[in-house]
Amino acid sequence: xxxxxxxxxxxxxxxxxxxxxxxxxxxxxxxxxxxxxxxxxxxxxxxxxxxxxxxxxxxxxxxxxxxxxxxxxxxxxxxxxxxxxxxxxxxxxxxxxxxxxxxxxxxxxxxxxxxxxxxxxxxxxxxxxxxxxxxxxxxxxxxxxxxxxxxxxxxxxxxxxxxxxxxxxxxxxxxxxxxxxxxxxxxxxxxxxxxxxxxxxxxxxxxx
Length: 208
Known about the structure:
Helices cover 75% and strands 3% of the residues. It has 208 residues and is mainly alpha-helical. The protein has a domain at 117-207. It has a two-stranded antiparallel ribbon with strand order 1-2. Helix 2 packs antiparallel against helix 3 (162-207). The chain is rod-shaped, with a radius of gyration of 53 Å. It starts with a helix and ends with a helix. The relative contact order is 0.06.
């Protein structure tokens, strides 16, 4: 009697184990069928989009989970206000510094342009003065050459001493030297003026 009861218990146990195994196997098959594609030429296309914030900061709260469908304009997360505020203050400070640098550069540029204009005016005046002196020296040289001819005639007639002739020759030589020097100075001054004009054009190009 006892052995018969034990046998029935074993049979029930085997039946239960078999039923549980069958249920598990069926569940696995259903899951596998549901999650797998059996088509021979199937193509799966994924679409990933990287998103980022224009402002750096720490995330305060996330409103969606990975895999959620979202529409355009949906709020995905919020940043900590304190972090954003600090970033804004930092940007404002940088902006103020840039404005200060710009104002300083503008001041330096205006001062440079004013100094350049002054140099141009001075250089033009210098050239004008050299030209006036050159004309004056040329006129004096003409007079000196006439005097030299006159004295040379007088010396040849023994109406004047040799020293007078030497004196007139020295005057003419000095004036000739002065004329050569003035011509050279005018040439240099004109070259310097052209350099200043070139600098002025470069400044105008930068300003425009």
